[in-house]
Amino acid sequence: MTExxxxxxxxxxxxxxxxxxxxxxxxxxxxxxxxxxxQIGGGLDYQRWPLAADGQSLFWAGLNKGKRSILVDLHSxxxxxxxxxxxxxxxxxxxxxxxxxxxxxxxxxxxREDLIMVALSGNPDGSSEVDYTVNPATGFPWATxxxxxxxxxxxxxxxxxxxxxxxxxxGLLAAERRRTQTGEGELVRxxxxxxxxxxxxxxxxxxxxxxxxxxxxxDGNYLYGAFGHxxxxxxDRRVMIVALTTRQWRALVKATGTADAIAGIERATGHDFDxxxxxxxxxxxxxxxxxxxxxxxxxxxxxxxxEGTGVSWGPYQTFSQLVRExxxxxxxxxMFEEIEHPGVGRYLAPRSPLDFATAGRLPVRRAPILGEHxxxxxxxxxxxxxxxxxxxxxxxxxxxxxxx
Length: 404
Description:
Elements: E1 10-14, H1 19-28, E2 33-39, H2 58-63, E3 68-72, H3 77-90, E4 92-95, H4 105-109, E5 116-121, H5 131-138, H6 159-182, E6 186-191, H7 192-202, H8 205-212, E7 227-232, E8 238-243, H9 246-256, H10 259-269, H11 276-281, H12 283-295, H13 299-306, E9 312-315, H14 319-325, E10 336-341, E11 345-350, H15 374-380, H16 386-394, E12 398-399
Helix pairs in contact: 1-6, 5-7, 6-7
């Protein structure tokens, strides 16, 4: 199908929403041949917001780039047999559909002994869970938001789904490497709640709660454990300043000309601002010293002042401001290129963030039109003839793109 560092890797994807489609797309953007199967008419995420002016899902277009699409009647025994044959032919299945019945690993493995299957679920017991129900359980919503907010604050970013999709790709490649070495297949299970709770532990929050028997309170936009805060500029923009390291801290003090005032606070309080803990303990006083400097300057002047100084900072941007003002989201960044999506129009789309020195990045391939490759897949992968494919269409077992 494509060039790329994963050229020759082929898999079947049965998915919806974020994690599984992201896992498949991550591999497709590196050169894998990813065939996504959906129920005729489209899966659960086919019309997921945001939408283009013509009603097509930009969500679908974003998370399915580089894949091939086949539409099958998954409610019919014959349709399920077709998908089973596809999985057996490709030898790898990535799915977040319930791994039971005809999609049970042992059932599929009967058709190919060395089958690799990556099965995503909400909880380890297979019960349902989504990012927006897992995140409330992690503790982060109770530690997010302004100090005076008496209720939890959710995140609009499905961070756990993103992490899960990436881990799904890693798990698939690990199992494929093992199969290359041993000839054996593998069932890889991955639960969304495990992904989230593992990260809570990795970041030290579980140990902190166990050993310190305390919860970290909401602290607005302050950075936990060091100095970081947001500031309003003269032209009503907002910037985030972070001083994790001593080098970043000293660069910030020098660039803002606040060394004398900062030294005075250190003497008065006994805080050592060359340490992360000292900066955290004195965060309110530090912010009070820095605030007038930002109040007196426009974003453009702040940008020019910080250029090349080593200050760690960034502007807050809406999605529209990101597209209009940030050169990193443009064709100046080799990750992006403009593509044409039928019915949607022309827009910027990202290649893989992974940039291999020898293999480089593949060009962006748009997401498929639903069912765009049905006949191609049936012929090339399953070896069906024109008459057989026509019969499947006539009986409603498969379908091509609408209007075809």
